[in-house]
Design a protein that fits this description.
The protein is α/β, with parallel strands linked by helices and 249 residues long. It has one domain: Alpha-Beta Barrel (TIM Barrel).
Length: 249
């Protein structure tokens, strides 16, 4: 089944306000009229400024996290209501850096997923194994558990707003990349597992991105794999000249 490529840029904790606005303007100009799906995950403090740039364009505005609770006494948190108020359309959840640096549990990630979906936001749910888990032959088991836990309580209808991003943790920011064949094998496993959780029809439609050091040099071969439908791009998303070539493949 042919699925539209979905290329998302995760800016992480990078850029200044001026840099964020300038990069967004470059992307709007260079991706205008292109047919793939695009999103940029912007730091909270620059979302409002970037929203003014991408509003009405073919680039979705994404946040890198969201609270699991509605507005209230939750110091330091940012709610779905706040994100929607400034034009955010998508949110990245379960990123390995949130899981392993911040200590987010699968239960908390699931609460955030359901909160975001119930409030009408799109979700990019990140899953993936550590190097030790891969070397122990546990990559598929880890991905299956994170899919089951992350999608608990998510309906088949809501899956239309869910994208899965497979990010082998050992390949993030390291320059290491899973071979296209290794990446394809896990992507196919994830799609088959989603078919077991839901149905073959849901599995056929879900977009599964690769999120482990994708760049212009390896993106064509990765994106040529039948079950790799896009990329969640980190470092290469911070400059138009390294992000756009991936976006237009």
């Amino acid at each position: 089944m042919a699925r539209t490529h979905y290329i998302a840029g995760n800016w992480k904790m990078n850029t200044s306000k001026a840099e964020a606005v300038a990069l967004a303007k470059d992307l709007v100009e260079q991706l205008k009229g292109k047919s793939n799906k695009y999103m940029i995950g912007v730091p909270f403090v620059y979302l409002d400024a970037v929203a003014q740039v991408v509003k009405g364009t073919n680039i979705l505005l994404g946040a890198q996290d969201v609270a699991a609770t509605p507005n209230g006494a939750h110091t330091g948190e940012v709610s779905t209501e706040m994100l929607k108020d400034i034009g955010v359309q998508s949110v990245i959840l379960g990123h390995s850096e949130r899981r392993h640096e911040i200590g987010e549990s699968d239960e908390l990630i699931n609460k955030k997923v359901r909160r975001a979906l119930n409030e009408g936001l799109e979700v990019v749910l990140c899953i993936g194994e550590l190097l030790a888990e891969r070397e122990a032959g546990e990559a598929e088991n880890v991905c299956a558990f994170q899919l089951s836990a992350g999608l608990a309580g998510v309906t088949a209808e809501q899956m239309k707003k869910v994208t899965i991003a497979y990010e082998p943790v050992w390949a993030i920011g390291t320059g290491k990349t899973a071979t296209p064949e290794d990446a394809q094998a896990i992507h196919k496993f994830c799609r088959d597992y989603i078919a077991k959780l839901y149905s073959q029809a849901v599995a056929d439609e879900v977009i599964i991105q690769y999120g482990g050091s994708m760049k212009a040099s390896n993106a064509p071969e990765l994106l040529a794999q039948p079950d790799i439908d896009g990329g969640l791009i980190g470092g290469a998303a911070l400059k138009a000249e390294t992000f756009v070539p991936i976006c237009v493949i």
